[in-house]
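Q: Sequence in, structure out?
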Amino acid sequence: MWFNQYGWKSNPFLIKPFEVIIGSDEVKNKVMNYIHGSNICFIYGDAGVGKTSLLKWIESNLKKYWCVYLNAEYLGKDFDLTKFLISNTRFLRRLRGYEYPKNCVILVDEAQELNKEVKCNLKAFYDENQIKSIVFVQNFFDLKGLDNMKERIGARIINIKEISDTQVFDLIKIRVGGINPFTEGAINVLGEAGNYNPRNILELCEKVCIKLDGKNEINVNDVKRILQFKPSESVKESNSLSPMQNKIVDLLKSGNKTVKELSQMLETSEGSVGKQLSKLTLNDVVVVVSHKRPKVYGVKKDE
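A: Exactly. Output:
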């Protein structure tokens, strides 16, 4: 198989839910706090940003809870929440007179597909304290389908966004283990070409590796050629830089800086700065002057 030629035992770029989630520590903490607080919350984000992986992580890491993952897209028309909960109540608990599982947490993927009956039952069980917490997840922000839950959800809404350029490196590093054929420049291109969406990036990695048939080192030109990739905007001429890119270049002219230092000076997120730096490095305007973490960037000097 193609992946054996690189030294991998299996395909490292599978897009199935993965136990290691990149760039979502803050999100994980928020969701866990909502669950421990017996709340209902709503999570949304584009396809491929890691929502299902997050739910699977929660399911595996919630201790002392009966946690169940439900994909509403695959629930049959005859799905009965009451019967489901009763059938999953332990025998000893039934002997004590309890009808439903203790500390029940429901994780609902593709929430927009829930039918009216299941939504009504979820609300009723939650209001009666038979369900401790509910996490609803879908690709887009729209609570119309959860009208009966709006008041319970309140402001507990989380938007999972794309990852930063640094997190692209982490994503690929974790997946490939100790065998990483991609150069730093190649990873920068993969991040931008995949719009910093984890699923897109993994699919592009797989495509490139299959095409290159076990090449030991995959560089910028390899990736650009296979993906027929061109940067989304030309930034080689100073008058073609975006306002933020101009600010970054001006700051770097006064001295080399890290992403964190630039984000503090610009009063914006590290993710936003990182993406702009990635574009600037791709077009030879900015270079990495130190690869030790945290990376240090500077303006490329004319030769």
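Residues 236-298 form a domain with the Arc Repressor Mutant, subunit A fold (CATH 1.10.10.10).
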